[in-house]
Each structure stands twice: as structure tokens, then as C-alpha cells.
Amino acid sequence: MKKIDNDTYEILAPIDPHSHFRSPAQIGDAVFNVVVDENSRHYDVVYAEPNTFLDQSDLKHHIEHADDVLKYRTLLQERQKGFGGRASIRVLAKLTHNTTPEMIRALVQLGVAGMKIYPENVTTGSSHGGISDFFHRLLLECLRTCEELGLPVQVHPEYPGEFSMRKEFLFHRVIGTYCALFPKLRLFVEHITDRRTLDLIQVLSKKYPVHGTIASHYFDLTLDDVLGRVDNHCRPNPKEPEDREALILAATGGESCFLYITDSAPHLWKNKHLSDDECAGVFNPSRIAIPWTFEIFEKRNALHMFERFTVDNPSKAYGLTHSGREIRLIRKRWTVERLADPTGDKERSLTPFRFRKDLEWQIAE
Q: Is residue 281 part of a domain?
């Protein structure tokens, strides 16, 4: 990080190992272009989550096989080239009850970024291919294969069928068992919201290669911000103010077991506001997420830890080499507005994180 003056900093472009780009089949071609740009523009590396369908005629089939990863990665890279994007976009594959060790080996040969476990019916895109039996023989064989190949495994840490505020804590039994069964498995516990999970990761990471990721919208939201505000609805649900404070302390504390993500998850306005579907997810694009995170670190007198959280820790955890690309942040207050659909249709617009609120910093384009 280079301090130009009190109002200008040059920082290494962060790494975001958890972002949702959706697909043209899911949100339409024009909005998809906007999302690819907004979710990748200011990052060095971005990981695309696999809970999306590529074909409207087959909504149940997500990014699961080697040919799915190749098709999705090519699509994302081609769209990114259209606006001169510079981020390296990598794609994860969904680990389902139908995944086999042979499929995982084929995915690794293709360069998959990692595997992702979604518990059944806990979030967007988890009703198809979601895991209901976390200790099924074939699933454990797949995890053993991931361990042997050194392939990262992300997991959404909520236990199905439980009360929403308890789901994450009750998933601890799964995390602990996986660590014991597969002590070299590179396990990533995604978007932590419960302070007890932070404690668990701190303990486990001393013995196992397990990491916890923290999404920056949880530096702001508690359950009160979600009740009656569908745009803030996400999974896992934000918890208590004490959990929010613990997340900020973990992020600014510099421990290598915690790393930055956005979990940026766009939904069309009409789906968030007019649909019977749950539509869990907060849209947190790079031009909002990075200044917001920087603002939090500045307020906590922790700017010296910013690049550790957003670059160093993700790089080490995933074995990435940063390109050295920098972006410039300037102190200039601005108000977050809704992102319009290119066609001008409000129902197809996107409402981002901190809509109608001010940010103290912005990225100099």
C-alpha cells in the first residue's frame, strides 16, 4: 500500500475468491454483462461460484462437470474482454451427491478453482444438487480425492432443517468431522456470520489447513437490517451486533486464517421484491465492496492490515500469485445508487449493498 497523501492511497487490487456472476440464462444477457464488469473490474483474481444454470431448459443442472466449467469460464472471459477487464476469473464446480472422484480428477485437469458444497435448501441454487447427507460414502470419497489432489473445497456452513439463527453453529459438527477425517483437506468455511464460528476456525487452523472467509456486507448488517428489507436478505443471515463486531475484529486483526470475500450475489429487482422465491444474496460489486472495506479498516486504525486481509491471506490460502496490479482510492464521499438495466426496465435493475447510503472512499477510474 502506498499513501500518496491523507486522501489518496494506491493499493494492490484485492483478490475475491467468492463471487456470483449468474448467467445470461438466469438474469438476461444485458444484465449479465453489467454483473461481469461490476463483480470483476477492480480485482486481481475472482472466483465464480457454481450455483447457476447455463440453459433455461435445464434449471437443475449447474456448474458440475468439466465441460460446464469450460463453458462457463469461456463465457465469463469472453464477456470480460468486451470491456477490457483485467481480472483473472476462475470457476468453481458444485460438489453434489452425484459427483465422483473421476469427475473431480477431470475437473482438476481442466484447471477448476475448487469444489463447493451447498447444503440442501439453505440458499440460492441449493435445492438442486444440495447435500443432505454430509457423511455419505461417495461424498467422503470425493473429499478424500480433493485432499489427495490439494484441491480447495468451499463449504456453505449452514445445517439444513434448523432454525436460521442456529444453522451455522450446528454445522460445526460437520466442519470438525471433515478436519478429523481429512487432516490435509484445504477447507474454506465461507461467509462466516457467527462469532462462535470465528472461534472454531481459530482453533482448527492451528492444526489443519482450514480458513474462514468474511464477506464485507457483514461489517454493516445485523438481523435488524434484514427484517423488512429484502435487498439485505442473504444466507447465512446476519446475526447480532456482537457477531458483527467480532467479524470486524477478525478481519482487521491480521490472522492468516481469515480472508476477504464479497459473496456478491445479484438478483433482479423483480425477483427480490415480487417473487415467491427466497432470493438470498446481497449484490456487493467491487466499486462498493473495496471502498467500504477500506473505510472500515480506516475507522479501526487498521489500514496496515488491509492488504493482508484482501491480498496476502487469500493469495497464501489459495496458492495464488498476485500480478502486482494496483488501484487508487480517493477520499470522496458519494451515494450508492441502483444499477439500472441497460434497457431501462426497473424490474430488471439491481439494488446494490448500501443503496442510498454514503461511502467515504471511491476508486479512481
A: yes
Q: Is residue 6 a part of any domain in this protein?
A: no
Instruction: Quick: pLDDT tens for 14-48.
Output: 999 999 999 999 999 999 999 999 999 999 999 99
Cis peptide bond upstream of 236, omega within 30 = yes
For the chain, give the secondary structure using H, E and C: CEEEECCEEEEECCEEEEECCCCHHHHCHHHHHHHHHHHHCCCCEEEECCCCCCCCCCCCCCCCCHHHHHHHHHHHHHHHHHCCCCCEEEECEECCCCCCHHHHHHHHHHCCCCEEECECCCCCCCCCCCECCCCCHHHHHHHHHHHHHCCCEEECCCCCCCCCCCHHHHCHHHHHHHHHHCCCCCEEECCCCCHHHHHHHHHHCCCCCEEEEEEHHHHCCCHHHHCCCHHHCCCCCCCCHHHHHHHHHHHHHCCCCEEEECCECCCCHHHHHHCCCCCCCEECCHHHHHHHHHHHHHHCCCHHHHHHHHHHHHHHHHCCCCCCCEEEEEEEEEECCCECCCCCCHHHCECECCCCCEEEEEECC
Number of domains in the chain: 1
HSE, side-chain direction, 13 A CA sphere, residue 40: 30
Structural domain includes residue 353: no
Write the pLDDT tens digit of every residue in 59-70: 888 999 999 999
Q: Tell if the pTM clears 0.85, that is, is over it.
A: yes
In terms of residue numbers, what domain contains 286?
Answer: 15-322
- Does some domain include residue 230? yes
